[in-house]
Write a structure and sequence with these properties.
Immunoglobulin-like, Leucine-rich repeat, LRR (right-handed beta-alpha superhelix), 3 domains, 8-stranded mixed sheet, 3 helices, 7% helix, 41% strand
């Protein structure tokens, strides 16, 4: 006679939850051979080991939810290995695919049981579901045994040790981000990726997750659209079953007052990295709020604030005038920088504006410590009121778009692009000149130093 565990579909199936620190100690007694139970322990929580403090911790998933699946294997002498999937319906676990079959009296055991949402059984192997990517969800192997005269499967994750860590990325809620990785082994895989790229969607709390192992000196970069939010290098390999937190939070406010309040709170909490998501047409009021908030919260700080601005397309006149707190400004969407926008930002060292097309008078006047500028393909520059680069160090590395054209002086100190001639390889490029200014180096397709 053989016993078929697929009878679970017709039986009263009971789930018993236990603490994540002990095995299941009690099961519901069975009344007949057709009454098969799947008894599952509580979902195991991660330990916490944060790379950076980003506010309250988030445990992530801590309990079973409707739709969760368990993937089981049963092995016995007569029938060999059998594979099945059980799905949680919110109250109990149901057999939803495959079958678990063995002959009564024949030794049978369950060598593997997995919680692996990205995977499914296919020809006796765990394979990725369509559209799923390894490393974007859990891959836990638990313990299971057949008990109670062969009528109960008891599954425990209480003593399970994950062979990977979790990276929690705190960012904008309900938004898509991209994550570039180096030397990362995704959960469920044994192959380390030298370079990887992941597209993740954050939850309502603004958390997105990667599961796997980062090696010593491995790097991870988080981007929202084209804006790099943060880059982190691990100083040692991540530990299995530990959770690490990465700060890629972004202030997304609707008014100047909200912007001011949010920045003040960030600076008061000791944050020096500030990321803002602004409307494309954000103007003088919003930038005045940014300036007042940073100056008011950190009046004596010099060159400490690393500012990232997303969304806005124009930096207004004098937007950051005399902001001694600024160390770097990254503006992925900005197309225009108006007159005197960064005038007398004496401790500003890095400006990145890869979409920039237009520059105006005195934009970087008296920026004494500038060392790196990154621009998009400039097609218009108006220096009629004051040179764009004036009273600044010559030790600046300028990075231009590969598509930069030569700039023609059509009027005194008014420049437009000559669309018939590339800047790369031109006499100006080779002499390290751009818009009447000599730089330490200019990179346009290739560097000239």
């Amino acid at each position: 006679m053989k016993k078929i565990f697929q009878y679970i579909m017709l039986a009263v199936v009971t789930i018993v939850m236990a603490s994540c620190t002990s095995d299941i100690e009690e099961t519901t007694a069975t009344t007949g051979k057709n009454n098969v139970q799947l008894v599952v322990g509580e979902f195991p929580a991660f330990g916490d080991s944060q790379t950076r403090a980003i506010g309250t911790t988030d445990e992530g998933k801590t309990s079973w939810a409707e739709g969760d699946e368990l993937l089981l294997v049963i092995d016995n002498t007569f029938y060999g290995k059998q594979y099945a999937t059980f799905t949680y319906n919110g109250k109990s676990w149901e057999l939803t695919s495959g079958e678990l079959v063995y002959r009564e009296g024949d030794p049978a055991y369950i060598p593997h049981v997995y919680y692996a949402p990205n995977y499914k059984w296919e020809a006796g192997k765990l394979v990725l579901k369509e559209g799923k990517v390894a490393g974007t969800d859990e891959y836990i192997e638990g313990n299971a045994r057949i008990t109670g005269n062969g009528e109960t499967i008891t599954v425990s994750f209480a003593e399970t040790t994950r062979k990977y860590s979790r990276l929690r990325i705190a960012t904008l809620p309900n938004e898509q981000i991209t994550v570039d990785t180096e030397y990362f082994t995704p959960a469920g895989s044994s192959d380390m990726e030298q370079k990887g790229n992941y597209t993740l969607t954050s939850d309502v709390k603004g958390n997105a997750y990667l599961y796997g192992t980062f090696e010593n000196n491995s790097e991870v970069t988080v981007k929202y659209r084209e804006a790099a939010l943060t880059t982190h290098t691990f100083s040692q390999a991540t530990e299995s079953a530990k959770s690490y937190a990465l700060d890629a939070t972004v202030i997304s406010a609707n008014s100047a007052e909200e912007i001011k309040s949010a920045i003040e709170q960030k600076v008061a909490d000791g944050k020096t990295t500030i990321r803002l998501n602004l409307a494309p047409n954000a103007g003088t009021d919003e930038f005045m709020a940014i300036r007042e908030a940073i100056k008011g919260a950190a009046p004596n700080d010099l060159g400490t604030i690393e500012l990232t601005i997303i969304g806005v397309e124009t930096i207004p006149e004098e937007a950051f005038y005399k902001m001694l707190q600024l160390k770097s400004v990254r503006m992925s969407d900005v197309k225009e920088i108006k007159k005197y926008a960064f005038k007398e930002c004496k401790y500003l060292t890095v400006v990145e504006a890869p979409s920039l097309n237009k520059l105006y008078s005195g934009a970087f006047k008296k920026c004494d410590q500038l060392s790196k500028l990154t621009f998009g393909p400039i097609n218009y520059a108006d220096a009629r009121n004051w040179p764009i680069f004036e009273y600044i160090t010559p030790n600046i590395d300028l990075i231009l778009s590969d598509y930069q054209k030569e700039m023609i002086e059509t009027d005194d100190y008014l420049y437009t692009a000559n669309n018939d001639r590339d800047y790369a390889g031109s006499d100006e490029h080779n002499s390290k000149n751009f818009l009447g200014r000599e730089f330490k180096s200019i990179t346009c397709r290739y560097p000239v130093e």
